[in-house]
Design a protein that fits this description.
6-stranded mixed sheet; alpha+beta
């Protein structure tokens, strides 16, 4: 597998300094982008989120949208493009003039890799539950996809150990936040809800795409601070990320419908 480090194609190994800040501190961002042979869906949303995150983290990322697309295309072509590809973009701060947590460097490194993946789909999530171990915390950077992703790593381990298909995370106050690697939406009495960013969730690309799309079509979405009982009282619950949509069938002992008229309208608007 070939990857692109800054602007140089490399093989599947990368030599880095021992004081690399991505390894030492998780000081950076990442993006996961699903492409097909014809297009890079939601590309501008990905670019805007990456640049917004870089600005918030004071990363001097000099990257135009055209250059970003060129880099991704170069990686895909170097690896003989598949029908669908999962692009991973890593951006981290340089380590020059490093003094502990502080780095005086304005240099930014970027690594872009790819691997084959399946077409984004809609799937049924048979068994979900609330996390017993992981709580997310809202702060100025909690909506970013940072490479210091320890809470989500531990949530994925808990999900596997408990033999679940999905794990729902709450914040430190018990409010619904997100799932292991996806945002969560629910429908009750024909009203669509999702957790607000102040509950500590990541600002997902598909979450933003849904918000943009339904606003244009006049469908109302409420971004809320909601406790578990409000989610459990829903008629229909689904998760979203760029790899697809998951429809939750059960949370612990509670069962939910796997079809809903409002969701069917939403699917049509999104072209799913």
């Amino acid at each position: 597998m070939k990857a692109l480090f800054n602007d140089t194609l490399i093989e599947d190994h990368l030599a880095i300094q021992v004081n690399n800040r991505a390894i030492q501190f998780g000081d950076g961002l990442f993006e996961t982008i699903i492409t097909n042979k014809a297009t890079i869906p939601l590309f501008k949303l990905h670019y805007d989120r990456l640049m917004h995150g870089a600005k918030l983290l004071s990363l001097n990322l000099d990257l135009s949208i055209a250059d970003f697309e060129r880099k991704i295309t170069k990686v895909i072509e170097a690896n003989e493009a598949n029908e669908y590809n999962r692009i991973k973009v890593l951006v981290w701060r340089g380590s020059e003039d490093q003094q502990g947590y502080y780095s005086g460097s304005e240099k930014v490194e970027i690594l872009i890799s790819t691997r084959p993946c399946d077409q984004p789909t809609i799937r049924i999530i048979e068994k979900a539950a609330f996390s017993e171990n992981v709580k997310v915390v809202f702060h100025s950077y909690s909506s970013l996809k940072t490479i210091s992703a320890l809470p989500y790593i531990m949530a994925a381990i808990e999900r596997k150990n408990r033999k679940l298909d999905e794990l729902i995370l709450t914040d430190v106050n018990g409010n619904i936040s997100e799932c292991v690697s996806s945002n969560i939406f629910w429908i009750r009495k024909n009203q669509l809800y999702t957790a607000c960013l102040e509950c500590g969730c990541v600002g997902g690309i598909m979450r933003q795409h849904i918000m943009n799309t339904i606003n244009l079509m006049g469908i109302q979405l409420s971004e809320v601070i909601a406790q578990k009982d409000e989610l459990l009282a829903a008629d229909f619950i689904f998760t979203t990320n760029v790899a697809g949509i998951g429809i939750i069938k059960t949370i612990d002992n509670d069962s939910y419908s796997t079809s809903n008229p409002l969701f069917e309208n939403l699917k049509q608007l999104l072209g799913l």
